């Protein structure tokens, strides 16, 4: 074993200040998460309960194995938008009868559970996670369908929801729909396209057109139950495979369905026994400085996340501003790339490209720990080929076929975000710490660049430059970019799968790695042309 030492002075002023700053951010994050938990607010929650119905997270709790964890994904979806935080949908990974599944649940207390543009994005992300990791998908349905005022944003792209269900089925990945309430019009295709369907007695309403629409279209008089009730679908249309007497029974039936899948994971099993890290995970709170310009050693993070704090570093003396090396997390082998000094130079880029190729040759998943301000700029670096070398790293990341997980610990700026497997590079999962910031560049740099461009433009036109206006614009731009770089903002836009407490990193990674190993783990055997 190569146990990482620690140099953290956990009683010192720096650690204490970093920890205090992180705890403040976590408290702020809790406030935002509470908004998602509150759903549509007390009025709609009380009305829902008054109808004898369970809330989406209560349905999930009944569905998953007792006392097992549920990794909720993107709870802050729609943050900062015109729609309620959480986007009227709960998604995540949970274990049903010993099988990891992707679970989604509409929140009917939020505008009748109707899908707005953020609900759609969140649902499509859940489908993608199910498909790429070969995880059975269980949808707990109760939704008013399309959020009608925003139909222009969702009607056309929304077709992907039903397409995904049947593609999952075609790929041999089971899909289960449990209908607790309304699932009308387009929504009727959720049970329509699923492999297994459960409907709740006197609650499920599954029809292409409800009574008023039918009356308008054909003049026929019909009630909810005869058009789309659970009993009708179980006895007459055959759309329901299982008739549940109540919500509890529906969750029990869904558990039996998953039990009978006899789902086999196709990835390699984890190594045993698993040793916890030698250093305390609690100390993860005090590593990232409040000011991201101050560097920190990511090995202190690795030492508190990987099994036995055991990390074999690759090329430690070369390209030292990026740490690369091998470890296991909950018994799953991983290759880790972690920014050590913020900036990526040519050496770091080449080292990363080589390391990623090694992981692909060995079929080992990769973990990217971000704290980078991007690739180095300047005459010497341009002449030294920083573009070519950055391109090598980006080529390696883009064409790598082993699963990737990214965790934004601190900065994740510029093309560095791409090279470190940012969202556009399809990591299987991407999480941010509350201390993370991501943007095309830092707020001051961005405001400064805009100011230089404006100054040059004025000079070219022979116009005087208004310094007071410049200072005001700079301050405004800096503020805007700062706000847009924050994790809650980025999470609201579904640019990550959630903002997590640093202390939960090992657990979250363990759940994700286990889920990832439902699918085969195979590296790329071919790459694009590396520009040397
Ligand atoms: N789009 C936008 N808002 C919707 C909505 C939709 N599809 N469905 C419901 N809402 C809103 C309601 O206007 C209401 O808002 P308000 O409280 O501010 O007035 C809120 O959500 C709750 O709806 P309500 O009808 O009071 O709830 P309910 O639980 O009694 O009934 C439904 C829920 C979904 C059965 C019912 O609202 C409904 O039939 N909606 C339309 C369904 C439909 O035809 N959708 C088109 C599918 S493509």
TrEMBL record:
Domain of life of the organism encoding this protein: Bacteria
InterPro entries: AcCoA_carboxyl_beta (IPR034733), ClpP/crotonase-like_dom_sf (IPR029045), COA_CT_C (IPR011763), COA_CT_N (IPR011762), MCCB/AccD1-like (IPR045190)
One family name in Pfam for this protein: Carboxyl_trans
Annotated signal peptide: none
Domain CoA carboxyltransferase N-terminal positions: 22-273
SUPFAM superfamilies, alphabetized: ClpP/crotonase
Residue stretches making up the CoA carboxyltransferase C-terminal domain: 28-273, 276-532
Protein name: Acetyl-CoA carboxylase carboxyltransferase component
């Amino acid at each position: 074993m190569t146990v990482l030492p620690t140099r953290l002075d956990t009683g010192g002023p720096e650690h204490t200040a970093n920890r205090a700053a992180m705890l403040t951010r976590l408290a702020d994050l809790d406030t935002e998460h509470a908004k998602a938990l509150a759903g549509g607010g007390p009025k709609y929650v009380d009305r829902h309960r008054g109808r004898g119905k369970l809330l989406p997270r209560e349905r999930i709790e009944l569905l998953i194995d007792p006392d097992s964890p549920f990794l909720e994904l993107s709870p802050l979806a729609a943050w900062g938008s015109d729609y309620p935080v959480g986007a009227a949908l709960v998604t995540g990974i949970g274990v049903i009868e010993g099988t990891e599944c992707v679970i989604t649940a509409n929140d009917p207390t939020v505008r009748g559970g109707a899908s707005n543009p953020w609900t759609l994005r969140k649902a499509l992300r859940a489908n993608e996670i199910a498909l790429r990791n070969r995880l059975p998908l269980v949808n707990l349905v109760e939704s008013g369908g399309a959020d009608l005022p925003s139909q222009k944003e969702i009607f056309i792209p929304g077709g992907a929801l039903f397409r995904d269900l049947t593609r999952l089925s075609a790929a041999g990945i089971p899909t289960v729909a449990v209908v607790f309430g309304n699932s009308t019009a387009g929504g009727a295709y959720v049970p329509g396209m699923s492999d297994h369907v459960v409907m709740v007695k006197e609650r499920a309403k599954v029809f292409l057109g409800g009574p008023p629409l039918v009356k308008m279209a054909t003049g026929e008089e019909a009630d909810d139950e005869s058009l789309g009730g659970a009993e009708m679908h179980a006895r007459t249309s055959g759309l329901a495979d299982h008739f549940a007497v109540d919500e509890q029974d529906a969750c029990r039936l869904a558990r039996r369905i998953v039990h009978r899948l006899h789902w086999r994971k196709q990835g390699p099993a984890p190594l045993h026994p698993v040793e916890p890290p030698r250093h305390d995970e609690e100390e993860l709170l005090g590593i990232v400085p409040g000011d991201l310009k101050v560097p920190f050693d990511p090995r202190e993070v690795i030492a508190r996340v990987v099994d036995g704090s055991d990390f074999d570093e690759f090329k430690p003396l070369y390209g030292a501003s990026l740490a690369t090396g091998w470890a296991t997390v909950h018994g799953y082998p991983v290759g880790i790339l972690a920014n050590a000094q913020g900036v990526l130079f040519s050496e770091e880029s080449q080292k990363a490209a080589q390391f990623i190729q090694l992981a692909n040759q060995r079929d080992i998943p990769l973990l990217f720990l971000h704290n980078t301000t991007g690739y180095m700029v300047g005459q010497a670096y341009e002449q030294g080929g920083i573009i070519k070398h950055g391109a090598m790293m980006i080529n390696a990341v883009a064409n790598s076929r082993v699963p990737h997980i990214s965790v934004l610990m601190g900065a994740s700026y510029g093309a560095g975000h791409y090279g470190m497997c940012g969202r556009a590079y399809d990591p299987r999962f991407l999480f941010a710490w509350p201390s993370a910031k991501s943007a095309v560049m830092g707020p001051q740099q961005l405001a400064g660049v805009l100011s230089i461009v404006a100054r040059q433009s004025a000079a070219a036109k022979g116009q005087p430059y208004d310094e007071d206006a410049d200072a005001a614009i700079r301050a405004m731009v800096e503020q805007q970019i700062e706000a847009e770089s924050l994790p809650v903002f980025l999470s609201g836009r579904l640019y990550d799968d959630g903002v997590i407490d640093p202390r939960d990193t090992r657990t979250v990674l363990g759940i994700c790695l286990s889920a990832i190993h439902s699918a085969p783990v195979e590296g790329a055997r071919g790459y694009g042309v590396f520009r040397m």
